[in-house]
Amino acid sequence: MKKLGVAVIGTGFWGRNHARVFNDLSNTELLAVCDINREKVRSVAEKFGVEGYVKSGKMLRRGDIGAVSVCTWTTNLAAEAVKALKAGKNVLVEKPMANTPQQARKTVQLAEKNGLNLMVGFIERFNPGVQRVKEAVEKGEIGTPVSATARRVSQWPERIGDVGVVKDTAIHDIDIIRYIFGQDPIALYAKAGNLRHRKFEDYAQIMLTFEGGKTASLEANWLTPYKIRNLSITGSDALIHLDYITQEITIETAGRSLTPRHKWEEPLKLELQHFANSMLNNKEPLVTGVDGYKALQIAQAALKSAEKCRTIKLG
Length: 315
Prior knowledge:
This protein is of the alpha/beta class. It contains nine helices and 15 strands. The strands form two sheets. Strands 14-13-12-11-7-10-9-8-15 form a nine-stranded mixed sheet. Helix 5 packs antiparallel against helix 9 (about 290-310).
């Protein structure tokens, strides 16, 4: 079996998980890891028996590396993705892919110019529960979709230090609503603030409106003492509920409530396997750089709406 030679830039919590999965997959070969922290990169490199680097430029000169996974802090994501693209590597960059939409747009343009694939790490797209919700909606099992409600709340993850809850957390649901509805929102209104985090917002509520009258309400915070990750979609004939954590879906109609049983699968493994298959077969991945750019645009607009206390129209 042909394998994709991969490297991981950033060996923090999420980067270590990427390295673990790439090391385990049958269609990838983990060749190198990189981090500015020498102790971290040495630990991960030794664990998986690969080369460790503190400078990504040196690592990217290797010809056996065909793709790179960028898992740095948000403020460094775009810079490292650009380095990899300029070095001729296909790239998976973690969400939100950049600190600003302008950085994201330039990264997308560079990938297109160089004929390379750019995928954004919206892991929930690969949650089997999301795929089942998408299928049910497309098959008309809930009738015509009318509205969606998403909650993504928990305590503040201390690994986050350079971005607030909108770009780190709510952006997942922004992407999922776009994916499920198959549309981009035309306007939004948001409220946000910070109670415990000194620099960035740690709670937000975002209302999205779409052509045809559909709406979505998103809640995200780092204040709730336990983790909740759920999605509900109201249709003209039924409701569908998803628990992202258990991957369980429930469809409710006037006469019954149905909860099919399915095997739990690790979304990260499914995501990275899809990335590798897409790169090996030179196919566009499920989540493109354009998807990342659009989600970041919406997240940025939500922050502007909260700051200005007004509705923002989206192009």
